[in-house]
Design brief:
The complex is a heterodimer.
Chain A (H helix, E strand, L loop, with lengths): L1 E9 L2 E9 L3 E5 L6 H9 L6 E6 L2 E5 L4 E2 L7 E4 L11 H5 L3 H4 L13 H7 L15 H13 L5 E5 L7 H17 L4 E5 L2 H7 L2 E6 L2 E7 H5 L14 E12 L4 E6 L2 E6 L8 E7 L3 E4 L10 E11 L5 E8 L2 E8 H7 L6 E6 L3 E3 L7
Parallel strand pairs in A: 3-9, 3-10, 7-8, 8-9
Antiparallel strand pairs in A: 1-2, 1-4, 4-5, 5-6, 10-11, 12-13, 12-15, 13-14, 15-21, 16-20, 17-18, 17-20, 18-19
Helix pairs in contact in A: 5-6
Chain B lengths: L2 H34 L5 H13 L2 H12 L4 H10 L7 H25 L3 H9 L4 H30 L2 H7 L9 H10 L4 H34 L1
Classes of the chains: A alpha+beta, B mainly alpha.
Chain lengths: ~375, ~230
């Protein structure tokens, strides 16, 4: 359980962050400059907040009232920097084993099995790089070595500061896969800083929404995503919701997969996961349209019955309609004219038609 | 080469060697503080360190003579309580050289420390390294090219030191007569030109060797960091 409750003045920037989470993978999400990195810097011990408390499980990292401040080398918090930050004068293997001096003297925390370098090297695919210098590595390779180096310090918590930011699309996908592997393979809680919603949806169990040095909201990804009004107003974020589903069946003839959730069924292009496995889907508000009667003769597969729980839209041409479907929430982005024409109001039953569904490949690994 | 000439060269090397060895730790500390810390009076501290670079060497020598001479406030204390005497000794020549070479050494070391990303040091701490270990395994190795360059520059400067040395410790053959002082002496003696030229060539060779070594080490370090 990570608990953060801090206030800190950094030049003219004021940080005031309060949240706690026991999620296997927590994401700090917000725009650049919103204070995400300042928060993990405080967790790692790079800076000292003016007020408050930071604790992980039974270890107190910082408590202003009790005058506790654990130096970074005693926190056992792994930190993977945006640019990897490998030691340039050491080979890859020496970078990986840098922490061995410290771990040899400290017992592995929480009676966990120690993380073994052979495992890390295999999992992160570092075998061929061991005797190279950091300057001879690509961006993605550097990040993998940086992750391995942090893991071999036997951390109780791993912080990743936008590890994908400096990589191109292909490398990004590669590192994402490695992060998923380490989340599933080593039971180390991860805090992942990101400004990409796709990364958050794919990886995180819980998220903390950070804006202008403050926490706007914290909770499960599905919950937070069903409240687009919480997202920093920035156009860059496509409003949408996340629904947890299970694979029901596959249709080999048409190459389709049926997914079920408490509110109904979704038919999507073929998914690799076996029947019964969990799949997270993300549905964007602009891909959902509404009807007050059950639509007939439509090419849209997915028609879900639900109830309007709220209508958001201040003055613009479009409004976001939140619909409860079973235990899940969908958002439909429609014009305000349509709302008036269909006379949509809160509590009204509607049919939501879903044009497209983006799937999160996370699959069976779900929390 | 005569026995006297060899003695002059060996004395010069001894003076230069000790002046660099003893001043290097202080220069490194000053360089680190200047590169990494901000404090009240930093500009003044920086200026004081750079003084020997801009002052006439004779001023430094004269100040040393006043402060560290046997009757000087510091000199008499050192003589009385610690039995250390600098005036008119080869150790005084080493001290004068060390002070004259200090700004060169600090500048080179400071530059190389300033190029080290402080986040590298923080990264090492998150990996469980104490500040002492971070210094020994990250900061020091990464600053090494600058440390070596600074030491070699100071060594070359020391081999050429004249004004401060002759003012502070005079020109005593076998004790304080280093290479430049010996050359000066020969130029003052009728018929000494040949010997002066011979020692001049020695001085050129020594200085070039120090500079070449510094350049070579720099390139090697550069190559290592980028390969």
């Amino acid at each position: 359980m990570l608990t953060v409750d801090i206030e800190q003045r950094l030049g003219t920037f004021r940080l005031a962050a309060t949240f706690s989470s026991a999620a296997p993978l927590l994401s700090l999400f917000g725009r650049s400059g919103s204070g995400k990195t300042s928060i993990i810097n405080a967790i790692a011990g790079a800076s000292r907040p003016d007020r408050g408390r930071i604790a992980f499980d039974d270890a107190e990292f910082f408590d202003a009232e009790k005058k506790i401040w654990l130096p970074p080398e005693q926190r056992r918090v792994g930190y993977v920097f945006q640019d990897g930050l490998l030691f340039p004068h050491l080979s890859v293997i020496a970078n990986l084993h840098y922490a061995s001096h410290a771990t040899a003297r400290q017992p592995t925390p929480l009676a966990k099995l120690p993380i073994v370098s052979a495992d890390v090297i295999e999992l992160l695919g570092l075998g061929g790089l061991l005797h190279r210098r950091p300057a001879a590595l690509s961006g993605g390779e550097k990040q993998r070595v940086a992750i391995g180096r942090a893991l071999l310090a036997q951390p109780r918590l791993l912080l990743l500061d936008e590890p994908l930011a400096s990589l191109d699309g292909e490398r990004k996908a590669e590192i994402l896969t490695y992060i998923e592997r380490l989340r599933d393979h080593f039971a180390i809680p991860i805090v992942f800083v990101s400004h990409s919603l796709d990364e958050v949806v794919r990886l995180a169990d819980e998220m903390v929404l950070v804006d202008k040095g403050r926490v706007l909201a914290a909770g499960s990804v599905a919950d937070i995503m069903s409240h687009p009004e919480w997202m920093p107003a920035n156009g860059r974020f496509d409003a949408g919701t996340v629904i947890e589903t299970h694979v029901e069946s596959h249709d080999a003839k048409y190459g389709l997969t049926t997914l079920t959730f408490a509110g109904g069924e979704l038919v999507v292009p073929h998914v690799d996961n076996a029947a019964g496995e969990r799949v997270r889907v993300r549905i964007l508000a602009r891909d959902v349209s509404l009807a007050t009667t059950e639509p007939q003769g439509t090419s849209i597969h997915n028609v879900l019955q639900g109830t309007i729980i709220a209508i958001h839209g201040e003055g613009g041409a479009v409004a976001d309609v939140r619909i409860a479907i079973g235990e899940s929430t969908l958002i439909a982005r429609v014009t305000r004219q349509s709302i008036d024409r269909l006379q949509l109001v809160q509590g009204q039953p509607v049919f939501a038609m879903v044009k497209a569904i983006s799937l999160d490949r996370r699959g069976a690994a779900g929390a | 080469m005569s026995k006297d000439e060899i003695e002059v060269i060996l004395l010069s090397l001894k003076v230069a060697f000790w002046s660099v060895l003893v001043s290097a730790p202080f220069a490194l500390a000053a360089a680190y503080v200047l590169a990494r810390k901000s404090f009240f009076g930093k500009t003044l501290f920086d200026a004081v360190i750079h003084l020997p670079l801009v002052l006439p060497p004779v001023v430094i020598g004269f100040a040393l003579l006043i402060l560290l001479g046997r009757k000087g406030p510091i000199g008499s204390f050192l003589d009385q309580y610690l039995g250390i005497v600098f005036a008119f000794k080869w150790t005084g020549a080493a001290l004068a050289s060390a002070i004259m070479g200090f700004p060169l050494m600090v500048r080179a070391m400071r530059l190389s420390i300033a190029t080290i990303d402080p986040r590298l040091e923080f990264a090492a701490r998150t990996l469980g390294a104490s500040p002492m270990r971070v210094w020994a395994t990250i900061t020091l190795p990464l600053a090494l090219p600058g440390i070596v360059t600074g030491a070699l520059l100071s060594l070359a400067r020391s081999l050429g030191e004249f004004g401060a040395t002759i003012t502070f410790v005079s020109n005593i053959p076998g004790e304080t007569q280093t290479l430049p002082l010996a050359i000066y002496t020969f130029t003052q003696v009728p018929g000494g030109e040949a010997q002066a030229v011979k020692l001049c060539i020695v001085a050129v060779v020594l200085s070039l060797t120090a500079l070449a070594a510094s350049e070579w080490l720099n390139r090697k370090a550069d190559h290592r960091a980028h390969s």
